[in-house]
Amino acid sequence: MVDQRYTRTAIFLHWLIAALLIGQFSFGWYLDEIPRGVPERSYFVNLHKSTGIVIGLLIFIRLFWRLAHTPPPLPLTVPSWERRLATAGHRLLYALMVIMPVSGYIASNFSKYGIKFFNVVSFPPWGIDDKAIYAFFNGTHKLASWLLLVMVILHVLAALKHLFIDRDQVFSRMLLRRRAAQRQ
Fold this sequence. Notes:
The protein is built from five helices and two strands. By secondary structure, the protein is mostly helical. It has one domain: Fumarate Reductase Cytochrome B subunit, CATH 1.20.950. It has a two-stranded antiparallel ribbon. Strand 1 (115-117) and strand 2 form a beta hairpin. Helix 1 packs antiparallel against helix 2, helix 2 (39-68) crosses helix 3 (80-108) and helix 3 runs antiparallel to helix 4. It is elongated. The chain starts with 7 loop residues before the first helix and ends with a helix. Mean pLDDT is 93; it is low at 180-184.
């Protein structure tokens, strides 16, 4: 019988990245409230960049894990149109999760500020200070963040549909179980 659950590593990375992304979205919105030119802004911007780098690395680990470990198949009760939509949605989620931190990192390297990792270690920019390049990648970063937020909301709504309406096993595939329950 084929296991219908994701691996413990996949489940752990899924929920860890989900929690970190929610925090990072909130942090990004908070940054918009801090006026430019005040010393506190650079402190918080560097924290946002630093946590973005860490989350980006976790996303790459999750992506490589996913590529190396085939996800469990959806239950046969899931219609084919819904399977195709789920596949497309997951691919878009992964693409946006890669585009967002990469574009933010690149944008940071085309400004004179670079990155001060957790406000301790300075990573000078490897690009030139170019406002047009910075604006392009920063705009890409912001657009990807909004699109990712929309996709996360749709992903959550789809999961809740499976939990409360379809009442199938799709939602539970991404939940950790106690060891005793797994043996049964």
